[in-house]
Design a protein that fits this description.
The protein is mostly helical. It is 57% helix and 7% strand.
Length: 141
């Protein structure tokens, strides 16, 4: 049913996550971050790509998302996918647990962001670069 989903090649992720009840994605670079920030439940579909799989496994391990292996890897993928989607839309306790986990991750993200001092970090990198140049000119490296 086309009224139940929407596909677009590009939409700002904050815009999308403010308007959806469930995010289904493949854990691409940064994609998983937005549903966490907006407390949107997540289903991650495996791709077999190492970095994506590692993040997906970790989010599933801490029960913040549901991970399903790639359809190529699992012949029962479609049945498991349907069952998982049904769980998200019909089990309020399941959703409540996921949202609690997502909220704790959002708190961690916000704390990390507030603790991060960009100016200090850039100045540190510049100092290190100057030190490295000085050592390389003296032959110490």
């Amino acid at each position: 049913n086309e009224s139940l989903y929407f596909f677009s090649r590009y939409l700002p992720m904050h815009f999308v996550c403010e308007r959806v009840d469930l995010m289904i994605h493949h854990c691409g670079s940064g994609t998983y971050h937005y549903p966490i920030l907006h407390n949107v439940p997540i289903i991650i579909i495996g791709t077999g790509c190492y970095d994506r799989e590692e993040v997906a496994y970790r989010l599933a391990e801490i029960e913040a998302a549901k991970y399903l292996p790639s359809p190529v890897e699992d012949p029962e993928f479609l049945a498991k996918f349907k069952k998982t989607v049904d769980l998200y839309f019909h089990d309020s306790q399941f959703i409540k647990k996921k949202k609690i986990k997502l909220d704790s991750l959002k708190t961690e993200i916000n704390k990390t962001a507030s603790d991060f001092n960009l100016k200090e970090t850039i100045e540190f990198a510049i100092r290190k670069k100057k030190t490295m140049k000085a050592y390389s000119k003296t032959g110490a490296i």
